[in-house]
């Protein structure tokens, strides 16, 4: 069952009922100011950091859910309604929500009044614009009142939920004309404030929540709206809000338009502000002046659309499969940008107050983002590397505002260092910019111990080399990619999640997954060494990768598949010898895609075992059989009920690893089958089962053992976005950036037909026609560039050449 449809021509998903199975959200903002908005106008805004600089409040665990947002109330006689249906839930005569690329648009009507709301964050300003238009579609004049409503958060969203003894006394506001200033903390050294303004003269306002809502009432029935009159309250402590009232009359057919702006402002460096708390309006005045007319809004909106059209034109496909085209050209790339911006911090499943930016997460997000805005990827790599420790290990997370490593969580996730190589390699292959490798980058943000980025990468590699266990496989530390495989924690803190205790190294427990990563990223590191004129170092890395490869085949192979790990007693995990958890997906995908056992036929066997033991109609499960009881020696993985999350859920993130591995061995049909199973455009049809947004990936779909098999959770912020884009764009459609040029080697299902690609790679624009006369799954007969045949599948990069006309004949 569907709750909407894709409108590809507008790059929108159109939701046709507010009663979606779960809130279906969108992200507004590309750089520093962000908002989350649901299909019923729930959500919140923040500047840079969802925890530390939260503008508007969101009430977690609220019942019913998703009822704090940026709302407009329309009072038409006795009827009060909202364009997004919530929070009054007055039945609408029509409703439509279009989530687009960086904007959302609502069109609804009630009693012959139509409301249109367009909301977006313009490029270059730290604000959210809501353009609201009301039209009278009846044959008689209407007199209406319009109310806006946002509830301020007292900046630190974590403290805001807890520290009531203080917070209920610190709220301060000021109202000047139609602008409501939220200036809590303004009198301190924190030189910032927020505004909510409208471009019309207002007929009333409220800034105290209790006065606007009334005692014992919620946003579903605000007293001021019911009375048709705001009270003019000036909040002092308690809960400051911003509500405007606008009274209007509309002739039949008439439309009136209002522009609301919610903004974040800082006094410029050195500019005086009044410690008495009197607001310095100037920064706000300057920003608000830019968005006063409909033309202003249209221009800003057009700029945003052009910006996105430009970004999304960097990689396009036209095939006979509109679902693939839709995901590649629109939604998958869009989600890559969102995960790049948010890491795992703020969604409807990540609270924005828990996690900051993940080291491994952000490095992986780069893989799907780097072609969009390489400059920002470069900056991000430097930020991430700056949190690395001198021994090559890394803080697992850092806070986006301060960019400093998070010492509450600390380090000890032994896959982290290698992801830095992955991200850097992707950046250099994409851009050819080797200057990043010589850039001086501090360790642990301490400039006195800086070293070139290349040296950071060396230490990443050496961290793994110097931390091996009894089978010469990498020590797992607190966990590897699978955060819940905590093989060293049991003796210290049984039953607790990894986040609650300190590093726990252990000299025995080993990870075959990290070993697979080492083989792949050891080679990528070696290639970087060659670019830097360091052949001896390249050779050393390749030797180490070869040793690792041997160790995997010797002690990481179980007969039919790769084992997952050795625990702290050197017992196998993910082996036929185990009672439960006999096979895990991660090493099958990653070792195979790294090339381990490909020649020996082991990879094929491993992937066949995946199909036989882990496959379901909704995707490939992370392990089987599920752990039915808690194992002290395994940690959090076995704490989940069977079928959920890391305990035998379909963890979408590593499905593309298996699909990529299938392309490595040339099985296009199977690679695509895996791609299809978790692909949002395909699961749209079963939205009543899948439940999360049908335009983006979710982290997890409940596995076969779960009660709600097929149900997704944790949508949006997942490495699935980047890895799936890597899979479809670089492996299935086959455009892989190398240091010497763009490589083309698709691996598609037999019935995929011919297709066309465009790609911007460095300063070149490539148009690529792929012909597949024999319906081959993989294989290149000949590539022609500008009419001339070339050898092999890499189109040599020619500096300064801007156009490449390419024809590829598969077979
Ligand atoms: C989850 C993991 C997550 C980790 C860190 C665990 O409870 O199962 O998926 O990565 O927490 O937040
Ligand atoms: C989600 C985390 O963000 C990611 O870093 C981790 O790899 C997966 N969960 C698997 O545990």
Automatic annotation (TrEMBL):
Pfam families in the cross-refs: GH94_b-supersand, Glyco_hydro_94
The keyword Transit peptide belongs to this UniProt entry's keyword annotation: no
Residue ranges of every copy of the Glycosyl hydrolase 94 supersandwich domain listed in the record: 11-293
Domain Glycosyl hydrolase 94 catalytic: start-end pairs: 307-734
Assigned keywords, A-Z: Glycosyltransferase, Transferase
MF term (GO), any: glycosyltransferase activity
Highest rank taxon of the organism: Bacteria
UniProt GO BP: carbohydrate metabolic process
UniProt xrefs under CDD domains: GH94N_CBP_like (cd11754)
Key word Glycosyltransferase present: yes
Family annotation (InterPro entries): 6-hairpin_glycosidase_sf, 6hp_glycosidase-like_sf, Gal_mutarotase_sf_dom, GH65_N, GH94_catalytic, GH94_Enzymes, GH94N_CBP, Glyco_hydrolase_94_b-supersand
Name this protein carries in UniProt: Cellobiose phosphorylase
Record organism: Kineothrix alysoides
């Amino acid at each position: 069952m569907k709750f909407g449809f894709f409108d590809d021509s507008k790059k929108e998903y159109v939701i046709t009922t507010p009663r979606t199975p779960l809130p279906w959200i969108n992200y507004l903002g590309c750089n520093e100011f962000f908002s989350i908005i649901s299909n019923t106008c729930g959500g919140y805004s923040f500047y840079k950091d969802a925890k530390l600089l939260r503008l508007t409040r969101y009430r977690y665990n609220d019942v019913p859910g998703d009822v704090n947002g940026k709302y407009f109330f329309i009072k038409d006689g006795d009827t009060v309604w909202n364009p997004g249906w919530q929070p009054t839930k007055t039945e609408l005569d029509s409703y439509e929500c279009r989530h687009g690329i960086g904007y959302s648009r609502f069109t609804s009507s009630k009693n012959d009044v139509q409301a249109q709301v367009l909301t977006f964050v313009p490029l270059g300003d730290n604000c959210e614009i809501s353009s609201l238009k009301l039209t009278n579609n009846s044959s008689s004049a209407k007199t209406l009142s319009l109310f806006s409503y946002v509830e301020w958060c007292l900046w630190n969203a974590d403290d805001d939920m807890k520290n009531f003894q203080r917070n209920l006394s610190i709220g301060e506001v000021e109202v000047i004309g139609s602008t409501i200033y939220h200036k809590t903390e303004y009198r301190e050294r924190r030189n910032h404030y927020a505004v909510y303004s409208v471009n019309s003269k207002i007929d009333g306002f409220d800034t105290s929540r209790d006065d606007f809502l009334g005692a014992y009432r919620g946003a579903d029935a605000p007293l001021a709206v019911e009375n048709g009159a705001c009270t003019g309250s000036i909040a002092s402590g308690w809960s400051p809000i911003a509500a405007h009232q606008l009274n209007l009359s509309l002739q039949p057919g008439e439309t009136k338009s209002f522009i609301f702006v919610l903004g974040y402002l800082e006094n410029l460096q050195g500019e005086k502000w009044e410690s008495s708390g009197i607001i310095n309006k100037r920064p706000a005045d300057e920003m608000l002046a830019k968005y006063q007319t409909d033309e202003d809004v249209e221009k800003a909106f057009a700029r945003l659309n052009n910006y996105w059209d430009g970004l999304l034109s960097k990689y396009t496909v036209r095939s006979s499969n509109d679902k693939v085209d839709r995901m590649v050209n629109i939604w998958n790339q869009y989600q890559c940008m969102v995960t790049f911006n948010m890491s795992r911090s703020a969604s409807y499943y990540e609270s924005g107050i828990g996690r900051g930016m993940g080291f491994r997460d952000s490095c992986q997000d780069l893989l799907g983002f780097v072609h969009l805005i390489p400059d920002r990827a470069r900056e991000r790599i430097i930020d991430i590397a700056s949190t690395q420790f001198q021994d090559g290990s890394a803080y697992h997370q850092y806070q986006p505002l301060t960019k400093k490593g998070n010492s509450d969580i600390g380090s000890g996730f032994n896959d982290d260092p290698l992801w830095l190589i992955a991200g850097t390699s992707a950046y250099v292959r994409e851009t050819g910019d080797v200057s990043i490798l010589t850039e001086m980058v501090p360790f642990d943000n301490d400039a006195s111990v800086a070293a070139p980025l290349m040296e950071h990468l060396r230490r990443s590699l050496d961290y793994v080399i110097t931390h091996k266990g009894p089978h010469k496989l990498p020590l797992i530390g607190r966990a590897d990619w699978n955060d819940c495989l905590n093989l060293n924690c049991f003796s210290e803190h049984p039953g607790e999640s990894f986040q609650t205790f300190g590093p726990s190294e252990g000299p025995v427990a080993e990870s075959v997954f990290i070993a697979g990563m080492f083989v792949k990223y050891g080679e990528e590191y070696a290639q970087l060494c060659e670019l830097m004129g360091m052949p001896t170092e390249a050779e050393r890395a390749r030797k180490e990768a070869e040793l690792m490869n041997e160790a995997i085949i010797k002690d990481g192979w179980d007969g039919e598949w790769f084992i997952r790990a050795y625990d702290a007693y050197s017992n196998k995990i993910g082996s036929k010898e185990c009672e439960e958890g006999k096979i895990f997906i991660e090493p099958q995908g990653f070792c195979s895609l790294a090339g381990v056992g490909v020649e020996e036929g082991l990879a094929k066997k491993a992937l066949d075992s995946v199909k036989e033991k882990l496959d379901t109609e909704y995707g490939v499960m992370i392990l089987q059989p599920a752990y039915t009881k808690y194992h002290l020696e395994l940690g959090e993985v076995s704490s989940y009920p069977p079928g959920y999350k890391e305990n035998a859920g379909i963890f979408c993130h590593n499905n593309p690893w298996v699909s990529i591995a299938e392309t490595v061995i040339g099985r296009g049909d199977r690679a695509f089958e895996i791609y299809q199973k978790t692909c949002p455009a395909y699961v749209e049809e079963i939205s009543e089962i899948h439940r999360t947004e049908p335009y983006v990936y979710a982290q997890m779909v409940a596995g076969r053992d779960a009660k709600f098999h097929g149900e997704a959770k944790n949508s949006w912020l997942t490495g699935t976005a980047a890895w799936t884009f890597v899979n479809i764009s670089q492996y299935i459609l086959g455009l892989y950036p190398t240091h010497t040029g763009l490589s083309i080697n698709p691996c598609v299902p037999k019935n995929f037909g011919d297709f066309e690609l465009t790609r911007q790679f460095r300063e070149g624009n490539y148009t690529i026609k792929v012909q597949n006369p024999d319906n081959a799954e993989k294989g290149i007969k000949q590539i022609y560039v500008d009419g001339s045949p070339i050898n092999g599948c890499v189109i040599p990069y020619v500096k300064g050449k801007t156009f490449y006309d390419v024809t590829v004949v598969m077979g």
